[in-house]
Amino acid sequence: EPPINVRSLSEAIGIRANDLIKRMMNSMGLQVNINANLEEESAVMLAMEFGVELEVIHERTAEDDLLEAWEPDEAEVLNQVPRPPVITILGHVDHGKTSLLDRIRKSNVVSGESGGITQHIGAYQVEHEGKLLTFVDTPGHEAFTAMRARGANVTDIVVLVVAADDGVMPQTQEAIAHAKAADVPIVIALNKIDLPNVNLNKIYGELSQQDLAPEEYGGDTPVVKTSAVTGQGIPELLEMLGIVAELRCEILATPSRPATGTCLEASISEGRGVVATVLVQDGTLKVGDVMVCGDGFGRVRALFDDKGNSVTEAGPSMPVEVSGLDEVPTAGEKFGVVEDVSRAREIAETRRLRTRGVALGERQAVTLENLYSKM
Ligand code: GTP
Ligand code: MG
């Protein structure tokens, strides 16, 4: 939608543009011209200074229609069935997230990583007592805040990995904040329990301070003592995750509908073009489907599961590598399947224009923040 600028505000509230510009200059020290974009809140405040209550009405856009079409309708909701829970591993850098997940899958991702730091979100499915669990790994490095936030947003349960020799650290606290913001239950894996001189009292105290009093301490946060090295506690952790998942009765999806979900990571791969790891959250994604993801679109050329096997479709909660998009989407962007390529192109082109429009608009937008700072 078009941004509010000084001219359109002037027309909307019947105050001369010159008076608006003078007011911004005099009371806020801002020098702007008639085409300067204003953030909605700033425009409301400015109007208020002239005794006008400005109500900004948002017109429905094609984008709104699209996102609504991606939501399940009533009949689809009636057809919902249980899907595997999506479990995100969060925690401070080096506390053992990847090692723990690796131990769970009994493969060897850690040794293949450069420098041992997880550079992207990996996602895998494992079977436990005949039921699938989907795990999403995240990096603990401070540079990856956005990825942890996105991880928390696609998840049903968070496993918060806390190293027993280190305790609650900055990225632990940040992970807790993400999990709380996403309103998902937290299971704590008190990892590296094999190390000597572990001070449980200290860590339980730190956890209690974060509002995560362990069950052992009379609180209600499940804490499982684990070691990715010896394997201690892994069965108990999976057991606990199964119990927590059962209690969350909203872990449902409609496999028969067109797929929607979230991009976890994406890159350009030589010979394969754009490759995106996506998590299917609802519906089933099939080879040949036409999908839109962020500014990219394309016909799904191939799908690979977490073990690198080629598959023809991916159902709810399944992480899958997709090739066929024309542009690299940003991790965290939603994807959805649309009717045909021309519709997909239309959506993607509108989005690309908008992205450019926003990038241009931002440069001269008067924000509430700089409005306040000049007052
Ligand atoms: P980032 O992805 O970089 O945030 O780290 P991470 O949390 O994935 O940690 P990672 O699994 O890479 O492990 C970090 C280091 O801790 C490695 O050297 C592991 O071998 C070691 N480690 C992980 N789990 C355990 C454990 O249970 N016990 C002991 N003794 N060492 C562990
Ligand atoms: Mg890692």
From TrEMBL:
Predominant location of this chain? cytoplasm
The record's subcellular location field reads: Cytoplasm
Q: Which UniProt keywords apply?
A: Cytoplasm, GTP-binding, Initiation factor, Nucleotide-binding, Protein biosynthesis
Q: Is the keyword Cytoplasm assigned to this protein?
A: yes
Q: Where is this region: G-domain?
A: 85-233
An MF annotation (GO) of this entry: GTPase activity
Q: Does the keyword GTP-binding apply?
A: yes
Domain named Tr-type G is located at 82-256
Question: Where is GTP bound in this sequence?
Answer: 91-98, 137-141, 191-194
Quote the cellular component terms of the Gene Ontology held in the record. Answer: cytosol
Which family is it part of?
Belongs to the TRAFAC class translation factor GTPase superfamily. Classic translation factor GTPase family. IF-2 subfamily.
Physiological role: One of the essential components for the initiation of protein synthesis. Protects formylmethionyl-tRNA from spontaneous hydrolysis and promotes its binding to the 30S ribosomal subunits. Also involved in the hydrolysis of GTP during the formation of the 70S ribosomal complex.
**Name under which the protein is recorded:** Translation initiation factor IF-2
**What species was this sequence derived from?**
Singulisphaera acidiphila (strain ATCC BAA-1392 / DSM 18658 / VKM B-2454 / MOB10)
Which gene holds the coding sequence for this protein? infB
Q: Which residues of the full protein are shown?
A: 201 to 575 of 783
